[in-house]
Amino acid sequence: MRLTPVVVAAALAMSSAASAGPTVGLGLSFSFGSGTVDTGVGIRVFSNNKRNRAVGSAGLDYMFGSQSMRGTIGAGYLTRNLYGGLDLGFDFGTGDFNFGPSLGVTRSTRRAAPPPPAAAPPSGLE
């Protein structure tokens, strides 16, 4: 089956995302491949939900030009409720691999603050 590598890669990306507090994003995507440029809308699952971090992603886009679905894996960067990414995709309609950027909205959280230093015991009670 031709789709096996893409399906396996997407499953691995999803499984690693499940262990690290994943988040979901919705946005625009652009693909470059086979001499054409296509635009679409898509959904992404990110491996982490912390702001100002690089993350892995897996997603699914609807591409307007080819009028087909495109599965993606890639890397991205989360900021305050926004993401930007670079994706490798497989267009299920044309059977072609392509690549391109994506950007959109997501729900991200702040990094946890470091714990305060341990308090020293009062000097007269030792």
Topology:
Layout: H1 4-18, E1 23-33, E2 36-46, E3 53-63, E4 68-78, E5 82-91, E6 97-106
Antiparallel strand pairs: 1-2, 1-6, 2-3, 3-4, 4-5, 5-6
Structural description of this entry:
This protein has 126 residues and is mainly beta. The chain has one domain. The chain has one helix at 4-18; strands at 23-33, 36-46, 53-63, 68-78, 82-91, 97-106. Strands 1-2-3-4-5-6 form a 6-stranded antiparallel beta barrel. A hairpin with a 3-residue loop joins strand 4 and strand 5 (82-91). The radius of gyration is 20 Å and the shape is rod-shaped.
Could you give the count of β-strands?
Answer: 6
Number of domains: 1
Give the ordered list of helices and strands: HEEEEEE
Q: Give the uncertain stretches in residue-range form.
A: 6-20
CA(first)-CA(last) distance = 72 Å
Outline: rod-shaped
Average of per-residue pLDDT values: 83
Helix/strand structural class: mainly beta
Please state the CA-atom Rg, rounded to the nearest Å. 20 Å
Task: Determine the strand fraction and express it as a percent band.
Answer: over 45%
How would you write the strand order of the largest sheet?
1-2-3-4-5-6
Estimate the helix proportion, in percent: 10-25%
Give me the number of helical elements: 1
Task: Describe the structure in brief.
The protein is mainly beta and 126 residues long. Helices cover 12% and strands 51% of the residues.
